[in-house]
Amino acid sequence: MIDTLLVVALAGLVVVVVAMALTALAAWRTERIAIVDVTWGLLFVAIAWTALAVGDASARSWLLAVLVTVWGGRLAWHTGSRFARADQEDPRYEEMLGDGPIGGRLALAARKVFAVQGGAAWFIALPLMVAAATDRPLGLVAALGGLVWLVGLVFETLGDAQLKAFKADPANKGKVMDRGLWAWTRHPNYFGDACMWWGLWIIAAEAWPGVLTVLSPVAMTYFLAFATGARLLERDMAKRPGYPEYMERTSMFFPLPPKRS
Predict the structure, then answer these.
(1) Separation CA 186–CA 104 (nearest Å)
(2) DSSP assignment, residue 212?
(3) Residue 237 contacts by C-beta under 8 Å, 6 or more apart in sequence?
(4) How far is the C-alpha of 171 from the C-alpha of 154, rounded, in Å?
(5) Buried b (16+ CB within 10 A) or exposed e, 199-220
């Protein structure tokens, strides 16, 4: 098993390097570093199927590959659509890298964005790679993980759909979205993401030594809630009229009943 795990881990690292190199080329051609957001979801899909191909093609690996493909494919479609609609760089990357010529920004992005995100993706994908080195049959724990994953998918998909419908109504222009799932958490899509990765970890944890990869979903949850996700987004959102009041009555991440005004 050790030999298989090393091969899978090395193959996953190669996938990360190749994917980030191609992303850098795409960023140079489009002159927008934000294209890395599209790569993020697809990178996990590539790692999952590579792990399946070079590891033990067990039912667990197949299940994880399919679930990650649903998650990563949907995320790539969502971020890709947003990237296509925009005509300028994402403000997050402008703040991080400046707004100079693409050559200078790419040099900084190689260290601050591509290397960091690539390393984070490889670490977060450890449950997928470790599971590919095991052959234990699926059991009740895997079923529980699938249920947690499904809850996350519902939160992410429904939250995005509710927000899209809210923005499409001209009557809501300038208003804060505080309906549906958004009344229970300010970031149902990020919470859904975290749930899905905890579900994937539970599936992997059923087969030893998958349980040892628990820091992978912890890292994903940290990024979503405190690092590059919700906390970073709210730095700008808090400046909008009505948003501070929304923050006072609505849980930031974990869904809770809204507080009375």
Answers:
(1) 36
(2) G
(3) 243
(4) 26
(5) bbbbbbbbbeebeebbebbebb
Whether 260 has a pLDDT exceeding 80, the answer reads no
Q: Is 174 exposed, middle or buried (0-12, 13-18, 19+ CB in 10 A)?
A: exposed
Of 55, 215, 65, the residue nearest 130 (C-alpha): 55
DSSP track, 21-83: HHHHHHHHHHT-GGGHHHHHHHHHHHHHHHHHHHS---HHHHHHHHHHHHHHHHHHHHHHHHH
Burial letters 222-245, b for 16+ CB under 10 A, else e: ebbbeeebbbeeeeeeeeeeebee
Q: How far apart are alpha carbons 57 and 67 in whole angstroms?
A: 15
Model confidence pLDDT, tens digit, residues 202-238 = 999 999 999 999 999 999 999 999 887 788 788 888 8
Residue 29, classified by CB atoms within 10 Å of its CB into exposed (0-12), middle (13-18) or buried (19+), is exposed
Helix (H) or strand (E) holding 134, with range, is none
Helices (H), 86-125: 91-97, 102-109, 115-124
Q: Answer for the pair 224, 155: CB distance below 8 angstroms, yes or no.
A: no
Tokens of 186: 């300010």
CA-based max dimension of the chain = 60
Question: Counting Cβ atoms within 10 Å, is residue 166 exposed (0-12), middle (13-18) or buried (19+)?
Answer: middle
pLDDT of residue 261: 59
Looking at residue 174, the DSSP 8-state letter turns out to be: T
